[in-house]
Amino acid sequence: KGFEIILKNPNVKAIFVNIFGGIVRCDRIANGILEATKMVDVHVPVVVRLDGTNAPEAAEILKNANISNVIAATDLADGAAKAVAAAKGEEYMSILVNKDTKVIVQGFTGSEGTFHAEQCIAYGTNIVGGVTPNKGGQEHLGKPVFNTVKDAVNATGATVSMVFVPPAFVADAVMEAADAGIELAVIITEGAPVRDMQAAKAYATKNGMKTIGPNCPGIITADECKIGIMPGNIFKKGNVGLISKSGTLTYEGANQVCNEGYGITTAVGIGGDPIIGLSYKQLLTMFEADPETEAIVMIGEIGGDLEIQAAEFIKENIKKPVVAFIAGQTAPKGKRMGHAGAIVSGSAGTAAEKMAALEAAGVKVVVSPAEIGKAVKEVLS
């Protein structure tokens, strides 16, 4: 009945169903929505976000129904973005970025910002401008330069920022992006102070902005959009999602997958600092909901417990096959290896502990990055 009433309004371009179930079971809601689409001529896209009781079962029901105008969302923000995109008749990529994403660069005219922005533009990324204080009104790489992120957003409609500012200023840059309405900040900067990033991450979350990084290679949706420092030529479009703490192992993992005849939907380098933005759990959820992704590669390393948390989450929520590699298997205790977060303290955070947890969750764990591609082929066969 609800669909009938809503669809009587000719101005309705999309429907967003958002339910966080407690006493209400999400699987029943999912079945109800599918029944409604059979009984009513639903001629607009229906975006569905179901969370809470029996949410994984609901996601499976919607996925198996394979109804083109019913679009699953992972959370409230994802659902709202998909509903707006659907109402505008735009394609929406559930893993954060696609060819239509409008990107600005903070630190645009600096040497690193210039070099990597140029590489991103050459890849096809829709960079619409950049920000460098006191250089507003100039043009750089054929794109406008603005004094502030707010000016850039107002002029271009950008929703994503690639951050290439010095470590001392990165927190301010992130908070400025959040204030201006940026939806995703990809923070490439290495050496950001931990306390600064704690404050910046909290501020971004409060303002509804997602972050990736810092100290990360960025994100790439193959053949569509590259935001960061990844070598775009090795990422061929395909059906495997990739999440990695390590930049180099992101590239190696993607290369191994492509060498086996598969390809990448989206690859996200989350960074290995103690304080990072989006992590395994959030990204695993997005890949699970993405109809183009059929398998997921997860690359972790020693230190912390993010991989342990991911293992527990995979066991309860992820149906797609996952292949994992943990770097630092021979690292001595108390010795930092590469990233600031890659340090084993006592018995916690060891590679063996993480590998065991992932195997117990049903993940295909490999002992060498050279085995990633073959493992993907095995789980997809």
Please provide a written account of the structure.
- With 381 residues, this protein is an alpha/beta fold.
- It is built from 13 helices and 17 strands.
- It folds into 3 domains: 2-87, Rossmann fold; 103-212, NAD(P)-binding Rossmann-like Domain (Rossmann fold); 231-380, 3-Layer(aba) Sandwich (Rossmann fold).
- Helix 12 links the parallel strand 16 (322-327) and strand 17.
- Helix 2 (26-39) runs parallel beside helix 3 (55-65) and helix 10 packs parallel to helix 11 (306-317).
- Residues 339-346 have low confidence and may be disordered.
The main sheet comes to: 7 strands, mixed
- Report low-confidence residues grouped into runs of 5 or more: 339-346
User: What is the CATH topology classification name of the largest domain?
Assistant: Rossmann fold
Enumerate how many helices there are, as a single number. 13
Number of strands: 17
**Secondary-structure element sequence?**
HEHEHEHEHEEEHEHEHEEEEHEHEHEHEH
Q: What class would the helix/strand composition place it in? A: alpha/beta
Which superfamily, in CATH terms, is the homologous superfamily of the largest domain? Succinyl-CoA synthetase domains
Mean pLDDT across all residues, rounded?
Answer: 90
Provide the CATH top-level class of the largest domain: Alpha Beta
- Output the radius of gyration: 21 Å
Shape, per Cα inertia axes: globular
Residues in helix, %:
25-40%
